Amino acid sequence: MWSFFSRDPSKDFNFEIGELVSSLIDKSVWNLHKGKKKGSNEEVSVFVFDLKSNTEADLDIAKSAVKRLKTLRHPSVLTYIDSLESDKVLYLATEYVDPLKDHLEKLPLEGPQRDLYIAWGIFQITRALSFLNNDGNLRHNNVNIWSVFVNSSGEWKLGGVEYVTSTQDGFSLKVVPALEVYTSPERNDPSKMRSITKCSTDMWGLGCLIWEVFNGPLYQQSSLKNTDKIPKQLVALYCELVGSNPASRPNPADIITRCRKLGGYFKNDLVDTLLFLEEIQIKDKNEKNRFFSNLTPHLDNFPDNVCKHKILPQLITAFEYGDAGSAVLAPMFKLGRLLDETEYQKKIVPCVVKLFGSNDRATRSRLLQQLEYFIGHLQAGTVNDQIFPQIAHGFMDTNPTIREQTVKSVIHLAPKLNYNNLNVEVLRHFARLQSKDDQGGIRTNTTVCLGKIAQHLHPQIRQKVLISAFVRAMRDPFPPARNAGVLAMAATQQYYLLSEVSSRILPALCQLTMDPEKSVRDSVFRTIKGFLGKLEKVSEDPSLRESMEADVNTATPSLSNAAATWAGWAVTAVTAKFYRSQSDTVKSVNPVASKILSKPGSLEQPSSSSLSTTTSSVTSMTSLEHEDGSRGNESVSDYDYNNWEDNENWGDMETGGQMQSSSGSGCATGTSDPTSPPSGSAAKVTEGWDNEEWGSLDEEAEAEGDLTSPSEAWSPSDTAPILPNQKNNLPIRNRSPQSHWEDSKIENNDDHASHNNAKLEEAKKKREERKLMRQKELEAKRATRVIGGGPMKLGAKKI
């Protein structure tokens, strides 16, 4: 009667018992179940021992296992959580694990990735046995595939501690018949009992485990002789482990030492990485930076569960509480892709927000480079309130690289920015950079980015700003900037009223039909033809005007997506170098006149404070000379950026963004006069801008009534080089005096045109005179070099 009212103690157990794991049946005194913690639904594993269906001896073994597991704490030993004993059942709750056999069967890894992972698993079990045998003076007595489990992080954990004894005690008797196959041979041979060491029994078990990892469960000891599937690096050690003489079996500590040497089985990238992370607290800052910088390429070879649950948490901890610096960002963001949205918001976003408040330039630069990988996970409110205000400081940074990367980051930020941040703050900074920045490449990319974000601008702001901004770009002394203005005008053609096309855009474009750069002229003529074709269609059929101007006042363009269709716009990287001369005046060299010369080995000598990233390089350059005197009248360019390599050496990022000029005489070439106007096409300076295959701008279908965007043929790899301006062009401070885009006007009258024609004729005559003088000077210089013994050396001063 009283038993009817008695409370079941198992109800006090803080875990729910779930599905039975069948693979462990008849391999242990326990039944393994999946479980969850009540309240939190945290997954656990619950080992259940039924008192009614087992003997008293079995119960003693189960109780011994609970006691041992509760006191054993090691990273490679199964983690104890809780236990409960009643008169009916014994519960043991541990971290959530799968039996190793089940884990290996469903393991999706293959090839080198699988090999690395298995080596890490065997290393963990060997380390656990070393802890038991050497540090705890304990003998496990039950090492096999059924006593090893794998947690959610992919870590192998040693369990099955039912038969653990002291090294001074005798062997315990196994009550499960299926485990007899793992009994070491000396147990049945009294003559060898004296040769038993404290670790010989467990080393036999380790040998059996290694065989099972590569072959499956062991059913007969005679199968251990087959080593076909065991890696060659491991065969010699395996043979020692399963040798008949117990005294010859190595100590687990010695196994780790041997296999961790160069060429050993435990010496691989995954084991090295995980061991470094376990010991990261005792590593110095240089070691951490070197480790994190080299980590990213290796992550592709690591299992996803190890990366997500083992490596990523360590990276986040290293960033939050350590001095890992910006080097940790690349691998952290790469592994962040493995997280679902909830986990990303919880683990990565707080780090990102914190990082954007950093004053370290290297950190800010890496964040801007990685922005496209995590911007999709950021909420619009977070971007506008916490991130954009920090990014906006980069527009005014003294470091050109930071300014450039900040400009390009707007492309990814624009869809999430609110009205004020995008239409006021961003455009204010863009207007200043486009008109006042001393780097031609930054002015160019400002124009490029403005075109790419045009679809996100408010229609009224867009109508007010775009034409003025692009017309200003078309007056820039830097040729790629003028080209960018022309192409941007063409790619955003759907946002202009036809009256503006005829009164403002075409007059501005026509002024560039006599541009010194052929690439600019080519772009202008193609664009003019497109706009004229558009006007001609409306002239023939006025009813098309409404459809052609449909996108002017719409927030979501219907005919084309301005940013998405710029396939080929050069904004992803700036690969050319630029320099600041000793007089702080921005200069440029002449374009190649007849053919492009390849730059010998190393022609530039960067200053100690030079800054370089994957998107642009900032360096001071010494004088450049020809390789030999046989290059005739060829014009030399200092900007052969095809062969330049990206460099991550930022130097001291805390000393400011100003560069020191290298010793030497500036940029001197033997064949180009820096005061002369450009002749021929600027093949090197404008590479990536002049070879697009445009389709006809007026080949749009009649029903659409709009011109085809030239962007369809632009390749995404094109870049806007950051190059110095030419001396003969206007200095930057003399550029268009307007401080706001809407103030720019186009002067278009006959008197002005006549005056310009007279100037062009006069300039043409002077060019011819300078060309003749330059040829004479070149001949004299070649003669001097022959007498003087060859070309000048790098860094030598000209006399």
TrEMBL record:
Species of provenance: Acanthoscelides obtectus
Gene Ontology molecular function: ATP binding; protein kinase activity
Job description of the protein: Regulates COPI-mediated retrograde protein traffic at the interface between the Golgi apparatus and the endoplasmic reticulum. Involved in the maintenance of the Golgi apparatus morphology.
Biased composition, class Basic and acidic residues, residue ranges: 740-770
Compositionally biased spans, kind Polar residues: 708-718, 725-739
SMART domains cross-referenced by the UniProt entry: S_TKc (SM00220)
Residues annotated as domain Protein kinase: 15-266
Listed Low complexity bias regions: 607-623, 652-683
Record InterPro entries: ARM-like, ARM-type_fold, CIK-Related_Protein, Kinase-like_dom_sf, Prot_kinase_dom
Region (Disordered): 598-770
PROSITE patterns, alphabetized: PROTEIN_KINASE_DOM
Gene3D superfamilies: Leucine-rich Repeat Variant, Phosphorylase Kinase, domain 1, Transferase(Phosphotransferase) domain 1
Family classification: Belongs to the protein kinase superfamily.
Start-end of Acidic residues biased regions: 689-705
Name of protein: N-terminal kinase-like protein
